[in-house]
Design the sequence.
């Protein structure tokens, strides 16, 4: 399998890979399979009942990486894909997913992915997901990812999601259920511009004793874009939960943050923080005294904030 | 370096009306180490901000090496060779110490190069280089990073607004040696706002600002003794 220049560029934008990766991977391009590789510990199987794949990681697998990028370069493509991840007991792996859309035409391109993670006892997972849109066409680029996370005892998951450019509309839903001693860390970075809109909706159920989560969102809304941040943490046992939304608002954009915490147990300790504001004048002035123009200063501040 | 303020005034408006913060200041500075001192609210910081371009004068002109910079932007003045260490350092979520020292120097510095500036201000460089300039840093740490940024710029005029404020005693002793060293080593001129006798002591010239005007101007020998005994200058503290 060979990728063309547009596909390579999309791939680099979402995975930092220059070409076909080594190790386990599954590349989906324009609705079909463009390449797959499995290893002794990682199996990837096409679903038979609906579109999508099962990624099965054997118990005890350490230091392996799975890449599952989705590339859309044809205009007018609209797809819904189900991917299930089974992370075996005590495995410790990295999964890099993401969707890049290059829409050069006038029709809407949409990729909706439903990712379900099942982390067995003691499993450790870092999951990185990037979304990126490009293309000179007038067709909308739409991504609606849903992530469902089930964490067994003492499992650990870190999820990093980023949507930095070019996606016209996104509705991101993440739901997680944590058993005893499980920990979930979610970091989300979003930048919207033009007339884009982005909604993110997190629901975390801390069901197990000593379970914990941190949901950290940093976002920048430019031009006339709109963002809505919803997060709900339910503390149903002795647990720790923390949600934080930090947004920079610019131009004529609008941002809403609706953090919600429900303590259903006397030893549930839950915190929410939300802050929205424009770039502080003193930050711009400081960087200008270092010789940067106002625009350069703004780029540095936004770039650092979303890093 | 020659800095000249020609009949500079600055008026600010608040709910009580227009206030004259700086009133017809005339000043020529070409010494290597000059200190502004005087009571709080006397106009020292405003004067520094007028020089850096953060405020524009209501009246008068400012010249740097003979060039009229009165209407030049902050960016222009920074590029012409003016640096400014704020009294209250600014925090940035996401930007690291390394990022800011690099921006200050005008080029992407290697970790080792950035570390050398941090060592100069007594920070254990490896621990700080990748830290974010956020609320996790103490006021004293931020002040020292602010000074390191000015050193990294190495411009012909460096303004420091009360570098001692918010710094603990241990840091303060180091701070004095930092300025002594800077005075010896740096090619450019230092203009420092300070209430500290030990900083004023190493100045080539002390200018006392009160009520928006220059009330005294002379060498440390001429100015300091009177300042230290004068009851009117309660803002000046002999020691910490």
Sequence:
């Amino acid at each position: 399998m060979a990728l063309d220049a547009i596909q390579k560029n999309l791939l680099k934008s979402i995975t930092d890979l220059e070409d076909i990766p080594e190790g386990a991977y599954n590349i989906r391009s324009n609705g079909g399979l463009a390449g797959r590789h499995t290893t002794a510990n990682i199996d990837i199987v096409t679903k038979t009942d609906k579109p999508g794949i099962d990624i099965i990681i054997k118990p005890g697998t350490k230091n392996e990486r799975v890449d599952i990028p989705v590339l859309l370069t044809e205009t007018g493509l609209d797809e819904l894909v189900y991917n299930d991840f089974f992370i075996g007991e005590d495995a410790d792996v990295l999964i890099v997913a993401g969707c890049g859309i290059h829409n050069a035409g006038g029709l809407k391109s949409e990729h909706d992915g439903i990712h379900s993670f099942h982390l067995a006892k003691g499993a450790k997972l870092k999951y990185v997901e990037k979304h990126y849109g490009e293309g000179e066409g007038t067709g909308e680029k739409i991504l609606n990812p849903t992530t469902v996370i089930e964490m067994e005892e003492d499992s650990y998951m870190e999820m990093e999601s980023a949507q930095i450019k070019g996606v016209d509309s996104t509705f991101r839903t993440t739901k997680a259920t944590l058993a005893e001693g499980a920990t979930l860390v979610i970091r989300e970075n979003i930048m919207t511009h033009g007339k884009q809109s982005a909604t993110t909706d997190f629901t975390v159920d801390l069901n197990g004793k000593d379970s914990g989560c941190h949901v950290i969102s940093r976002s920048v809304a430019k031009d006339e874009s709109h963002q809505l941040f919803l997060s709900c943490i339910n503390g149903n046992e002795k647990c720790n939960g923390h949600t934080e939304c930090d947004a920079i608002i610019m131009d004529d954009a609008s941002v809403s943050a609706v953090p919600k915490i429900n303590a259903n147990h006397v030893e549930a300790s839950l915190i929410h923080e939300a802050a929205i504001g424009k770039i502080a004048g003193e930050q711009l002035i400081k960087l200008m005294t270092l010789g940067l123009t106002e625009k350069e200063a703004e780029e540095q501040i936004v770039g650092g904030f979303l890093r | 370096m020659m800095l000249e303020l020609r009949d500079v005034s600055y008026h600010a408006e608040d709910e009580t009306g227009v206030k004259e913060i700086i009133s017809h200041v005339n000043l020529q500075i070409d010494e290597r180490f000059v200190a502004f001192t005087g009571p709080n609210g006397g106009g020292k910081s405003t004067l520094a901000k007028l020089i850096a371009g953060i405020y524009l004068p209501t009246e008068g002109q400012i010249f740097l090496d003979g060039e009229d910079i009165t209407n030049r932007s902050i960016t222009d003045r920074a590029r012409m060779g003016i640096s400014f260490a704020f009294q209250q350092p600014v925090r940035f979520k996401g930007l690291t110490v390394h990022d800011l020292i690099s921006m200050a120097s005008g080029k992407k510095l290697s970790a080792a190069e950035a570390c050398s500036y941090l060592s100069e201000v007594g920070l254990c460089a490896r621990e700080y280089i990748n830290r974010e300039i956020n609320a996790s840093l103490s006021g004293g740490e931020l002040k020292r990073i602010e000074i390191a940024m000015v050193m990294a710029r190495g411009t012909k005029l460096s303004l420091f607004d009360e570098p001692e404020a918010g710094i603990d005693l241990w840091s303060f002793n180091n701070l004095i040696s930092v300025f002594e060293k800077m005075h010896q080593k740096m090619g450019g001129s230092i203009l420092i706002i300070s209430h500290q006798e030990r900083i004023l002591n190493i100045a080539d010239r002390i200018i006392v600002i009160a009520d928006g005007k220059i009330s005294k101007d002379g060498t440390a020998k001429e100015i300091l003794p009177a300042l230290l005994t004068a009851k009117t200058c309660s803002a000046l503290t002999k020691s910490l």
In short: Chain B touches chain A at residues 52, 54, 73-75, 78-79, 82-84, 86, 88, 90, 92-96, 99-100, 103-104, 106, 149, 153 (CB under 8 Å).
